[in-house]
Design brief:
The complex is a heterodimer of chains A (241) and B (397). Chain A has 241 residues and is of the alpha/beta class. Helix content of chain A is 48%, strand content 11%. The chains are: A alpha/beta (241), B alpha+beta (397).
Chain lengths: 241, 397
């Protein structure tokens, strides 16, 4: 799924890749068949060069550090801690590497964990190749990829009025601004960044910076409700909501 | 109640409680006194004492009088037949039972809740989930046990019976009960543990069976179907998508259309939208993305109208837009619910819709508006279509 219409988000000239040469992508997935399929489809577009792939955490960390790709496409579910572990280990050494998480699961827990580990976006495996390509380019350009579902999760997790005006420093991490909410709502409704920009009378760049700000809050917020919310969402049967 | 009575009489609470308990062993005098106090002492926080309302209720007086006369008859009969001791000793207990009826019938909500809680605790001590039935059993068990204990001690302690031999008998009885408990304790404990282990195992086996059944009914069937329709890519895709959606819901959401309805029997908004998603995907072969923030039981006409309108809008998108994806977004806010249905299809000019093609306006928009909500359609040729629905949440039942 991903963002229908991410296809419309033209990443702009040179997004990710000044000069127009293909973008270097590293694949991390424990399903060999899936890796082969993605490698084939991405390479066929001519806009991507797959510089390496791995099916386990240790191999992935070494491979990514050895090949310095533009984007790492990483599966969330793998043995030995999965994708989030790869992200954490690589970022501890090379903080500049950009990750796009990929998974069959739509579970809030997995999505949030991948983002908290440091991934700059999240797409599901049913995503179409053009959509995946656009998502990769967006991440390579340093922006965040928010699918409608991820936007919905964030709105849900940050729902309700934040705790009354406490004046501690860093509290702005625990709540979304009104504008960020507006942007996320439109993304959740299926709007592409470009359409969000038009709807709110702001530039695409501004939309991207709002989304990146939300991503940062997702990654850094101490808001314990975030984890609790994700876990509850998984554990509590709907009738107990 | 003891604290209240104690307060009225100016006695220490603990002393009052101890006195009640001690007196209870003398044929239940304590219980009778306790209940009498409950009737006479005004409740905490003011208000008339219970006996006032009891006196005003003819049925209660009738019931109590009937019970009292029956007990009297029993006692007379007992004396005639020659069973004076135990029956006479139980007289206070009988009075306590009658008073208990009066208190139960006229106790306020707070008092009743306290009684319920006490009984609930006892049944929970058995390790069982408290249900109405179990609750009744626990109450029955408690009352029977108390009657036996009170009757036993009263009989033993009745003045005419109190002599050395009886004390010895009593001691022997205590000894036997204690000894048997000690000997059997490990066995009981083991029995309890075995039972728990067996329950766990059974639960696990059931879970495995359920999973196998589910995989068989859904995944295996679909794979078989896919093999048979391999020549038709559209059909294969449809099957795979429907199956994926179903499995995903089952694995990750613990809910969805297959889940049992929420408490109170009302389906929730999210469940209803998931059903819409499945239906439209199956019938029209396009993808429906559903994103929801929050959830609410579908317990009033406004919400049901919104779901129906969303379904209509999604079906319209499937039929006319030519888009491959329809996005449905629902957000539950404090006092309202918004639902958006959007496609990126060919769109249309809303001002130029022929009056005879009133499907959208009538069924989608009218439905929502009739229930106090608002609805609007935004579309332009080449720009796709978005239907926005908004409805106040109304009073949940």
């Amino acid at each position: 799924m991903g963002a229908p219409g991410q296809g419309d988000v033209s990443p702009g000239p040179g997004a990710g890749l000044p000069g127009g040469q293909p973008m270097d992508v590293f694949l991390v997935d424990d399903h060999q068949l899936f890796r082969a399929g993605v490698r084939h489809e991405l390479s066929a577009t001519g806009r991507v060069r797959v510089v390496g792939e791995s099916g386990d955490v240790a191999g992935a960390v070494a491979g990514v550090l050895g090949s310095s790709p533009d984007v790492v496409l990483v599966d969330v579910h793998m043995p030995d801690g999965g994708g989030p572990e790869v992200v954490r280990q690589v970022l501890a050494v090379a903080p500049g590497v950009r990750f796009l998480a990929l998974s069959v699961s739509d579970a809030a827990e997995d999505v949030i964990e991948a983002i908290r580990a440091g991934a700059r976006g999240y797409v599901t495996k049913t995503i179409s190749t053009p959509e995946l390509l656009d998502a990769l380019e967006t991440v390579a350009a340093g922006d965040a990829v928010f699918s409608p579902r991820l936007a919905g999760f964030v709105l849900d997790a940050f729902a309700g009025s934040p705790e009354p005006v406490s004046v501690h420093l860093g509290d702005e991490l625990d709540q979304l601004t009104g504008r960020e909410r507006d942007v996320l709502r439109l993304i959740a409704r299926g709007y592409a960044y470009k359409e969000v920009a038009r709807e709110l009378y702001i530039s695409v760049k501004t939309v991207e910076s709002h989304v990146s700000a939300v991503l940062r809050k997702l990654q850094l917020s101490n808001r314990h409700q975030l984890t609790r919310w994700a876990i509850q969402r998984r554990l509590v049967p709907p009738e107990d909501y | 109640m003891a604290p209240l009575a104690a307060g009225k009489l100016g006695v220490d609470v603990l002393a009052a409680r101890a006195a009640f308990v001690a007196l209870s062993f003398c044929g239940g005098i304590g219980i009778a006194l306790y209940l009498a106090a409950w009737l006479v002492v005004p409740p905490e926080g003011g208000g008339p004492p219970l006996y006032r309302s009891a006196l005003a209720d003819g049925r209660t007086i009738g019931l109590t009088a009937a019970a009292a006369s029956m007990l009297g008859a029993l006692m007379v009969a007992g004396t005639v037949v020659g069973l004076p001791g135990p029956l006479a000793a139980l007289l206070p207990g009988a009075v306590a039972a009658s008073l208990g009826v009066v208190v139960w019938r006229h106790a306020g909500a707070a008092d009743r809740a306290a009684l319920h809680r006490a009984a609930g605790l006892l049944s929970a001590a058995g390790g069982a989930v408290p249900t109405r039935r179990r609750f009744a059993f626990a109450l029955l068990r408690l009352v029977t046990g108390l009657v036996l204990v009170v009757a036993g001690t009263s009989t033993l302690l009745a003045p005419r019976h109190l002599n050395r031999a009886d004390l010895l008998v009593a001691l022997a009885a205590v000894g036997v009960v204690g000894g048997v408990s000690l000997v059997l304790a490990p066995w009981w404990l083991r029995l309890g543990r075995d039972l728990a282990a067996e329950r766990r195992q059974r639960a696990r086996a059931e879970e495995r069976a359920e999973m196998a059944a589910h995989l068989h009914d859904s995944v295996l069937q679909t794979l078989a179907l896919i093999q048979r329709t391999a020549s038709d890519p559209g059909q294969v895709q449809r099957l795979a998508r429907a199956q994926e959606r179903q499995l995903r819901t089952w694995l990750f959401d613990h809910g969805g259309p297959d889940a049992p309805p929420a408490a109170g029997g009302a389906e929730t908004l999210v469940q209803a939208l998931r059903s819409v998603q499945q239906e439209v995907e199956q019938d029209h072969g396009l993808r429906v993305d559903v994103v929801t923030v929050g959830d609410v039981p579908l317990d009033n006409d406004g919400l049901r109208a919104v779901v129906a309108a969303a379904r209509e809008a999604a079906v319209n998108a499937a039929k006319w837009s030519g888009a491959e994806v329809v996005s449905v977004y629902a957000e539950v806010e404090e006092s309202s619910v918004s639902v958006f249905v959007r496609d990126r299809g060919r769109g249309f000019d809303p001002s130029r819709v022929a009056p005879d093609r009133r499907g959208l306006a009538e069924s989608v928009l009218g439905r929502a508006r009739r229930n106090g909500g608002t609805a609007s359609v935004r579309s332009a040729p080449g720009e796709g279509t978005e239907v926005s629905l908004w409805v106040p949440r109304g009073r949940a039942t």
